[in-house]
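Continued from yesterday's entry.
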Amino acid sequence: MGLKILIDGQQSQNLQVMWSVDGQGTNKNFFHHTFSNVIPPAQSFALKILSKAFDGAIWLLPGNTQDRPESNHNLPLYEQASVTSDGQRVQNVRAPYQVNFIPNPAAGWDPANSRDLRVNLNAIPQGTVLYTVTAKRMSTTSEEQVIGQLVTTSPFVASEYEDGKLFFQHAAKRWRA
């Protein structure tokens, strides 16, 4: 899942989260699994090989170690935490190591449902809690803190723009304590 966070007068901040690089098989329920910016290692042989290639490619990115993600299993949050919603730079950035989007089971549908995703999303009423968002401050702790909810404020709208033009740039800077 990708979230585009608009910042007044600046480029947007983009957040990508997922459940697993292996996917969820034949389960069609988008709200079945928790999404996170810290992703478990691949399980399939082919994806394990691809994962090693991505890890090697990280070291080819420009800049120093702090300018690169620590691994392909972590989509860092430092860049998103370094600016406020009105475009001001944060002096002492305190980014969470991990955020989790825990789905509301009531927002989901039958895992065997074969309708178009957009049709299923359109059936979700305005005001529905889609996800409860939790965060872990450090990589070494298991304690999660609820930091918010993702709630629909209008009906879903499918558009040519979102399907063909909307772009989510990945963060580059690694997480810092």
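--- second protein ---
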Amino acid sequence: MPRLKIITEETQKEITFSGAPVLKDLLKQEGYFIDSPCGGNGKCGKCTVKLFDGISHSNNLQWEIKLACKTILTADTTVKLPEIFIENAFVETDIGTIQSKNCKFQYGAALDIGTTTIALKLFSKEGKAVAEAVSVNPQRSVSSDVMGRISAAVDGKLPLLNLQITDCINNLFENICNTAGIERKDIEKTVITGNTAMLYLLCGINPKSIAVAPFKADNLFGVEINSPVKAYLPPCINAFVGADLVCSVIASGMCESNKTALLCDIGTNGEIALWKNGRLYVTSAAAGPAFEGAEISCGCPCVDGAIDKVWFENQRIFTHTINNSPAVGICGSGLIDAVAAFLEQGYIDSDGISPSVLNLPSHGKPISITAEDIRALQLAKSAVCSAIETVLAATSVEFDEIEAFYLVGGFGNRLNLDSAVEIGLIPKALARKTKQMGNGALKGAAMILFDEGLKQKAIETALKAEHIQLGGNELFNQRFCENLRF
């Protein structure tokens, strides 16, 4: 049988294979996650690997650069993987100690299924975090965005998407059990949150009801499930405003206050909530995957080596990478920093036009920003900013009436507010009122874990939410066109 030799920065492994497998699929079977935001269509170029025909033990090989998603193996081959393929994602999980009320279990877990990343946290009965595990969402290999996964599920890939998420969750639970020195059965209670589509795929339910107009979800959960773990799923609001927003609203406490407050989860599917005079208004904006580093030429998730900060100092540009590792790409917060810095220095004009490709200094992989990258960021930031403006206009709220602005999610927590204002993602009037909450969805899920009464609060929150439709909304369309400029 033909052999495949897999070389990483630290290890070497040799396996055999039969037939003519696609390299990306074979690597996945061996536990190597290959980032493929385009769904394996050969368009994004993110799954490039180095190949050598045959098995060699020499260090002086003549490597070829190939796309793992388009490489079919038929004979002995050696493949070298860059470090980004094998590192875990960096996910915001610091939510502090959770108040425990009449807890009847020894250990409980809260899980947040994000479009890009998944975070699991294990708690003792006292509400203290004792272990955590994070992962890139393996469904990225099918599509980087929600609608792409919904379409894939409807077109027959639901079993694959369900298997990917359940396998990932099982692995995360195994990791936290090993860390805490406990058995799986010791975790007596779990709460799982996520956007509506992610929960559909978790449950193995065909999402066709949210795939086409009028996008009316036929399942909004708020129920117990038994697989892959026995868990409670908080309620979703509608097809595109999920349990993650409900949990974030609970975590913020905004509905327990008389203050007019705005909450925003900036990501692939930006979710927004406004609390005013006892009424909760919500909406969602399809920002696309640029904030998550997908469909950006040198983009990547938040992994070791991702450029997450960029700034100018004394006419020189500087970069910082996660864990100070050699650069492997640029994540969303780094992209916003970079564009804001180049914009401020005049290398990019207000229309997003730059005379050339913008190169960033880095130790590691060469990183640059192209005109297409800038355009993708313009589309994403305009979607979010325009959604905020449309919600406020629809409810007759002025920016100066907002007393608190909550930014939730790992991306929002890493975001440089000055850069966000510079590119027009966040209105300047809100910047000084901003509280970066971190993973609000995970915190809200953990709060529900320890307080049964919050299950009813979650249901009430979902039921009273008034949805502001952006599709076909003339004001949103107008603002979207206007806000494309920096």
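The first helix runs from residue 23 to 29. The chain has a mean pLDDT of 91. Will compare against the first tomorrow.
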